[in-house]
């Protein structure tokens, strides 16, 4: 079966604007509203809080993150992937496959989320990755008023999001997916090791 984009959420932009006539600016405003992100999407906040079930993480909302998240939010608008944990792993797969250009923060955030999807729904993770491989990327263009005034439908057609996936995955799809899983897994392990290293040093001093 061909993978369909996940438009099950009645509050998602594709369901509220099925013909894609809204501008990306207006559609993004609906997306911010539906997810309680605030009028500016939280871009002006000094800290970002992420809820992971019973655990919450907070980290600085650096300008480099904001620059990447501006495109990330538009990708949510265009693809319909949710903002829950599974949806974030799906869009990380989509953006890794389509590319984040020179936005290092985009690569970092996506590489952290990508391997988590393997434990939640590997089928949906792979489908989102395949979707990204056949689509263009917003990260390769300027973020400006011209982009925000483009209609949702026009942007989806331009990026190739309106095209169905082939019935079966290619060998290149499978190989590159496995490769990125290895890269992202190594990235997560290395990041955790660097974060925990100071705690190990402190423990040795104390005990």
Walk me through the structure.
With 207 residues, this protein is mainly alpha-helical. It has one domain. Strand 1 and strand 2 form a beta hairpin. It is globular. The mean pLDDT is 89.
Q: Give unreliable regions as ranges.
A: none
Alpha plus pi helix count: 10
State the total count of DSSP E strands.
Answer: 2
Share of residues in strands: 5-15%
> How are helices and strands ordered from N to C?
HHEEHHHHHHHH
CA-atom Rg in angstroms: 18 Å
Question: How do you describe this structure in short?
Answer:
By secondary structure, the protein is mainly α.
Question: How are the SSEs ordered, and which strands pair?
Answer:
Blueprint: H1 13-16, H2 24-34, E1 47-52, E2 55-60, H3 63-79, H4 85-98, H5 104-113, H6 117-120, H7 122-133, H8 145-148, H9 152-159, H10 171-206
Antiparallel strand pairs: 1-2
Helix pairs in contact: 2-3, 4-5, 4-7
Can you give keywords for this protein?
single chain; 207 residues; mainly alpha; two-stranded antiparallel ribbon; 10 helices
């Amino acid at each position: 079966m061909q993978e369909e984009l996940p438009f099950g959420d009645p509050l998602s932009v594709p369901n509220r604007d099925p013909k894609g006539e809204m501008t990306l600016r207006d559609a993004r405003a609906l997306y911010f509203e539906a997810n309680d992100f605030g009028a500016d999407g939280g871009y002006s906040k000094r800290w970002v809080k992420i809820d992971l079930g019973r655990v919450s993480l907070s980290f600085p909302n650096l300008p480099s993150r904001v620059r990447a998240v501006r495109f990330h939010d538009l990708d949510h608008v265009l693809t319909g992937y949710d903002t829950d944990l599974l949806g974030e792993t799906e869009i990380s797969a989509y953006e890794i496959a389509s590319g984040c250009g020179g936005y290092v923060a985009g690569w970092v955030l996506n590489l952290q989320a990508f391997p988590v999807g393997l434990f939640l729904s590997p089928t949906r993770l792979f489908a989102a990755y395949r979707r990204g491989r056949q689509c263009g990327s917003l990260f390769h263009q300027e973020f400006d008023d011209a982009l925000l005034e483009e209609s949702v439908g026009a942007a989806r057609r331009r990026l190739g999001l309106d095209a169905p996936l082939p019935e079966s995955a290619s060998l290149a799809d499978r190989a590159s997916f496995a490769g990125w899983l290895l890269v992202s897994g190594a990235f997560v392990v290395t990041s955790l090791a660097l974060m925990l290293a100071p705690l190990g040093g402190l423990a040795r001093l104390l005990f």
